[in-house]
Amino acid sequence: MSVTNNNTTAEQLGVVKPPQPPPKRPVRRGAKPPPDRPQRALFCLTLKNPLRKMCIDVVEWKPFEYLILLTIFANCVALAVYTPYPNSDSNSTNAYLENIEYIFLVIFTVECVMKILAYGFVAHPGAYLRNGWNLLDFTIVVIGMISTTLSSLLKDGFDVKALRAFRVLRPLRLVSGVPSLQVVLNSILRAMVPLLHIALLVLFVIIIYAIIGLELFSGKLHRTCFHNVTMRMMDDPKPCGVPEEGAFNCSGVDINYICSGYWEGPNKGITNFDNFGLAMLTVFQCITLEGWTDVLYNIEDALGRTWQWTYFVSMVILGAFFVMNLILGVLSGEFSKEREKAKARGDFHKLREKQQIEEDLRGYLDWITQAEDIEPEGEERANHQDHKNKNSSETESADRLEGDEGENQESWWMKKKKDFDRNNRRIRRSCRKAVKSQGFYWLIIILVFLNTGVLATEHYQQPKWLDSFQEATNIFFVALFTMEMTLKMYSLGFQGYFVSLFNRFDCFVVIGSIGEMILTRTNIMPPLGVSVLRCVRLLRVFKVTKYWRSLSNLVASLLNSIQSIASLLLLLFLFIVIFALLGMQVFGGKFNFNPTIMKPRSNFDSFWQSLLTVFQILTGEDWNAVMYDGIQAYGGVSSLGVLACIYFIILFICGNYILLNVFLAIAV
């Protein structure tokens, strides 16, 4: 008997119903406590001040936050559209963008002032400058105001647009609230202290090898081959030395060439051991494993092939193989700790919810028990009511007998339907047993490998008969895989089939293959689109991952980490955008330092080219050549242009050694 019937019976008997316990308020998950605001901001504005109340309402209004994010995005677009020109030249678009910068500066200044009025400046916890992101915003706003003031007062004002590129960091204030991204951010931030220790160790190794290189190779890379009459340097200069010691011999190239010491050195004098700074830069380049063999061979050409290889081999083993790989160990360890903490927090929240549910259930059980205590008093009346209901139901059943003759005609159809359902279940059971059998498993694997082999036979200028054979086999395999999908859908049912992620992938591949066949034969799409659609055939190779246990486990492991990987990709994209915009401001239009040769492809003259150049440096491929061009763009090693290497070193360390290693930490 239900609780409602018990209460009704108790009311009819005149028994006082026990008081119902008040419902408990549900526990809100993730609810944030109200902010603890100071009584006064800027020593004069109280919480009741109308101006401060208005500022608090505005800065905590969600649309205002979206407006600021939209402004940040628009500011990044304006920085990306800006086209840098050599010699401080400009065009009308750049002038228009310069005027828009004033609008952005006003918006960010208003945001800064309103937050200071709402939260205070710095004197108490929770103040504006106590937040790291607010500190970054405040710094950028102040620098922008100083730049604008100097630009208006001086004709050639101080340009700080390079720092404005850091505004793209502001969206991290919101994306850091995403749990997976928060794990990545916390892991990287918590790893800063041990990474600093590793940085000191790397610096120690670089200093030691720079001092050794300074003692051994100082001034040894400035001798090259010159013509003995015209004193013209050879077209492809390289270091030379005393032939008897095994060094490069100029007379071996041409008898009229002599080895002389009037050359600036390899890479416009950047790669050498002439002073401590350039020696450290050369050692760091060798530790990154990019171009270290070129430095080794230059030293051997200058001094001979004797013992110099021991210096470079030991440097690579100690610096690159040992010390630099410690970064991966630190990041992996910190990420594992943060993941365990996040898991522990999740388990704790689940335990709290379970305890809350058990407490609520205990209260309701007590209430039901109290209601059941008064049930015997009304049981007799309830039985009497059941007896009356039984008599009335018997009368109604007698009336229904008259309509049974009409239903006999429908019984034949019901019998046929039951037979059909019974046979259908039997066939589905047999099909389900077949698709789960070992023979079906090996049949699909063989078909996948045969399909892969046919796809691998395609080549340039293949004969016509091979085209016909590939088209026929494609239709054959599409038909077989369609039959496999249909058989699984029938045996497992639509709901049971689409529960599996691999089955959904198979369905996508089959539908894509059928669509590719239709579009190819009807000539609806252009040849390029057809070529792209034919790539769907290659996805059939991945069907083997469903049946190969080890590959299936590997794919499942990657899918479990996909949320963290997506969060890291967002961080990586923001990092690339920031350094691309920064590179445009610093090096845009400056890589045309030598008009006699073609401008390097890796440059920062446009946003998209800058993105590609930053990504190239991030991967470590020929990053030192881009650094050489950046140093020459500012006058080379003979001036302060050598400081341009700082940009490339920071980009390489933060991108290649930290962010890219986090991918391995997540996968592990």
TrEMBL record:
* Pfam families referenced in this protein's UniProt entry, alphabetically: Ion_trans
Q: Chief subcellular site?
A: membrane
Where the record annotates domain Ion transport, the positions are 62-342, 439-667
Task: Return the GO cellular component terms, semicolon-separated.
Answer: apical plasma membrane; basolateral plasma membrane; voltage-gated calcium channel complex
Q: Where is the composition biased (Basic and acidic residues)?
A: 379-403
The record's InterPro entries line, in alphabetical order, gives: Ion_trans_dom, VDCC_alpha-1_subunit, VDCC_L_a1su, VDCCAlpha1, Volt_channel_dom_sf
Transmembrane is among the record's keywords: yes
Superkingdom = Eukaryota
Q: Where does Ca(2+) bind?
A: E290, E621
List the biased-composition ranges (Polar residues). Answer: 1-11
What Gene3D superfamilies would the database entry show?
1.10.287.70, 6.10.250.2500, Voltage-gated potassium channels. Chain C (1.20.120.350)
Q: What is this protein called?
A: Voltage-dependent L-type calcium channel subunit alpha
Name the source organism.
Cacopsylla melanoneura
